Amino acid sequence: MRDSWKLTRSLTLLIGALATVGCTAPGTQVAAIPSTFSTGSPDRSVVAAGKPPIVRAQDATLTADDAAMRQTSPGNTNQYRTGMPASGAPVTQPIQQVQYDAPPLPQAPVAGQPTATYPQAGVVSGAPYNPNAYDQAVNNGYVQQQQLPPPASVAPLGRPMGGAPIFNPPLGPDQIYGPNPVYDPGRQPFLPGRTADILVNAQEAQTGRFQFGVGVNSDAGVTGSIVVDERNFDYAAVPTSWDDVWSGRAFRGAGQGFRLEALPGTQVQRYMATFTEPYLFRTNISLNLSGYYFDRIYRDWNENRVGGRVGLGYRLTPDLSVGASLRMENVDISDPRSNASADLNAAVGSHDLFSGQLSITHDTRDQPFAPTEGHLIEFSFEQAFGSYSFPRAEVDMRRYFLLRERADGSGRHTLGLSGRAGFSGSDTPIFENYFAGGYSTLRGFDFRGIGPVQGDIYTGGPFRVLGSVEYLFPITADDMLKGVIFTDVGTVQESTKIVWDEFDIAPGFGLRVSVPALGQAPIALDFAFPINKADSDRTQVFSFFIGYAR
């Protein structure tokens, strides 16, 4: 009897030891709960006296790689799990983790955006959506921060085995976009009640510029150019010491614009000072002030202008703006070449001229100089008074089409269409008339070489129409040499009655040469051949110009 009791006691201890070994998982798989495990054991594997161990939601498929991944990405451990098999039972099939799939996208993609979906985290269609699979870039401009789970010292709330995870990162794409999101990679997500800190590393750009150069063109002869331009001007930052001047703090810092320009030349002289306040009184209204001196030697007379202009602008939309301006100037006409023109004789002398102008502009061009896409539509009305009183209305329309380009955006082939028209009243003096001819208006003709003539004096007219079709294409791979094919049409008349037979037409071709040492403006070399003209028109096959504007 006594031996059987000893044998029974030995078998009981042996079974208990085997049961303890079978239920003990590796240290990385045992849930650490201080209340049920001894805190004195480094691996927390010693059972406290009188308290049985509690093993919770163990995962038989956990590997060393999984543990390393979760150490690298803390907080991304909420998985759908099942229980361990019975103690000592063989594991024939590893417990599979639930495969996840992306949420459904029933809505149509945003207009103009490519169809896109979230990355697939699993292969089983229809499985629950796991936000942990998308803990990197949620959308352009926003990176989801990794969320840490509760500390190991706090026992999480229990949940049914295989139920929904308790801990979920709160900023998954499903929370951001709603239950039926439309994933738009180019759109910043809207997070109600949330803010994001944006760290921008920037270096201050050079806002001041001093430029010196020499130019020549077929319309104005040889000219020099001296320009001082500051795009971060501050008229209130008056220097208090020489240190403010030498350090560059004087008259800088308010984002205003200030420009001094001197263009002395053989036929043209122009001196101008311009001040620009882009946000007048912290509003969206811009202010422009300018004063100028202009002297020009024309073929038939000399003209001198001294005056100024005050302008206000307001941008209604990014593409639509309105403006208003006042012009005040004194015009002096001298040295007439002939007495054959009554209009010129009447204009000789000094005249005070004032005018007010209203304008509206819609501009969608990709860039103001050498555009390749978009359009420009501008309407303006001006009323002059003083020595002369007359109205003036003008319209300028331009459209650009990008036909083709290289993969990197260079080598652009551009088709440009333009049309301009202007009309002024009957009291318009000769020095305010419209003229045409030359590179900027009508290639193939001499500067101011078409239109009404009195004797041998070209007097211009109160009505003008200009049009042009131009195809610009690259010749070299670096875009430093481009070719152009064009046709210019236009007329200047004394009445608004359009006579199509009186339109001058000149097709032609040319080159655009960009020389980095001479600045960004290209050299334009054009050849035009008039095919329809008046007998009094003066032709000029070759014209050249340095710059963008026509």
TrEMBL record:
Entry-linked PROSITE patterns: PROKAR_LIPOPROTEIN (PS51257)
One family name in Pfam for this protein: Omp85
Segments forming domain Bacterial surface antigen (D15): 251-548
Signal peptide (residue range): 1-31
Gene Ontology terms: cellular component: outer membrane
Organism domain of life: Bacteria
Primary localization: membrane
Subcellular localization: Membrane
Ligase is among the record's keywords: no
Keyword list, A-Z: Cell outer membrane, Membrane, Signal, Transmembrane
InterPro entries, alphabetized: Bac_surfAg_D15 (IPR000184), D15-like (IPR039910)
Record-given protein name: Bacterial surface antigen (D15) domain-containing protein
Source species of the chain: Blastopirellula marina
